[in-house]
Structure formats: C-alpha cells, structure tokens
Amino acid sequence: MEGKNFLLPDFYAKSLPPQIGFLGIAIMMCILGEELTSLRTELQLSQEVREKQTKAIEYVNTVKNDISDIKTLIGQIKNEKNENNSVKEDIASANPPTETPPGTADGDEDSSSITNDVNDNLARPSYRDRLLSNPGPSNNSNHYKQQRERHINQHRQGNASQQQNQSQRNEHGRRQTTLIGSRVPTNDANEFSGVRVKFEIYVGRCALTSNRENLLQYCKDRCRFSEIECEELKTRSDYYKSFKVTVNELDKGKIFYPEFGPENMYVRKFYTSNGNRNIDSNTDSNNLSTD
Questions:
Q1: What is the mean pLDDT of the chain?
Q2: Which of 113, 147, 284, 289 lies most in the core, judged by the most C-beta atoms within 10 Å?
C-alpha cells in the first residue's frame, strides 16, 4: 500500500504494537474483523426482513381462508332463503283464497263503509276553502326561491362537512404520508424548513491519545462541515480508539473523500439495528471496534 504525502493529524496512532514485522498482516486482520462485523449486521437485518415477509404471507393466507368461509356462509344463507320461498309458494298453492258470494253480511258491511266514506268526503272542506283559510306566501315565485335557497344551503353544508372530514383524515395521516426529516423550500430559495436529516459515520483506528475535541477540530479544518457532532465509542482494542461522527445529510460525501484522513484510518457508515441508536456496553454492538 502506497503512503500519502501529507502530515498526519495529532490523533493518528504514531506508536505501533511490538509486532512491527507483521504490520501489514495486522492491518488486514483489523479490516477483515470490521468487515465481518458489518456482514453479521447485514445478515441479521436480512433475517428480520425474511421473518416479516413470512408473517405477512401467513396473514394473507389467513385472510384468504376467512374470505372463503364468508363466501360459504353467504351461499348457505341464499340456499336457506330459496328453500323458505319455495315452502311459502307450496303453502300458498295448497291453500287458495276463498271468495265470498255477493249478498252476504260482508257485502253489507262493505256497502255501509263506502257510504260512510262518501259522507266524510262531503263533510271535509274543499281545496278552495283550505287555501282561503291558509293562503301561504303571497308570491309563488318568492316561495319557490326560498325553497331553492334552502336546498342549496343544505348541499353547501353537506359539502363543507365532507371537506372538513377530509381535512381531519389528512391531519391524522389516514390519506397522506409524511416523511420524517423531509424539508421543503421557504420563500427564500437558499433556505429550507423542516427537520434536518442527520448522517452518522464510524471513524476507527485512531490513536489512544486522541480525543473528541481533536477529531472535531480536524473535521472542521479538513472538510468545513456546517454542523458536526462527535461521540467516543467503547472499544475492545488496546491500541486504537473509535468515534461516531454525526453530520448533515448534505455533507456526508465530504468525509468519504480519500483525502479526508490518513491511509490507515477506517471510515464507514455507522450501522444501527432495530432503530436503536444507543450503544449498550453489555451487548455485542455492531460498531464496537475490534482493532
């Protein structure tokens, strides 16, 4: 491996382990260990995705079985309905209605009821009398206009309630999805509003004498980041230190340039599992350095 022609930073490990003759092998083993850790993380994530897909397939099969059961029940209900209708038709055909001959007592009752209805109609006031007693609106056009306005107002109220329900559904996220950390332009073309998206980077193989302040100063001088945060990680190495650097999403490309750090410095994306960004010293974290 060819060396780079620039001065090493203060936090770079200038002192090496006693095995000077095996420096190249040690570096390759360190890199291999970190790559194995990354591969283990990717395998774990793929296994979780596979489990979720399996559960989704099981859920789909369950829904299909439920739909088939519902179709079977609907068919049974239709068959029972058809059987009940056929039974009713058989009963009606077996018991035909009987006709009463004219001149019986029922006929006399019908004739008396008709006479009473005629007398009631004669005693009821006519349409002209009802108009005189309740003339209603003086102008028919005004009356129709009021009815039309009342119907229009009812439709407007119904449309307003539908729009209000739609806006409430949108506010609760039922009809539209919002991206976390999304930013939209403001009136000024050079400014944005919203939550800034952060990008976390793992920096490994630093000297034991290095600290958070030195690395922050180096990053600011080298890449001129607009926003940067640094956190020291717990490692198992006796010769090196590791850090987690958080920068803006738009500035993540600066730190991956070959000119960012010395040749032996290791820089990659900071891996997280299950959305948990807290490193627990009791667990085997994916970002604990094995340098």
A1: 69
A2: 289
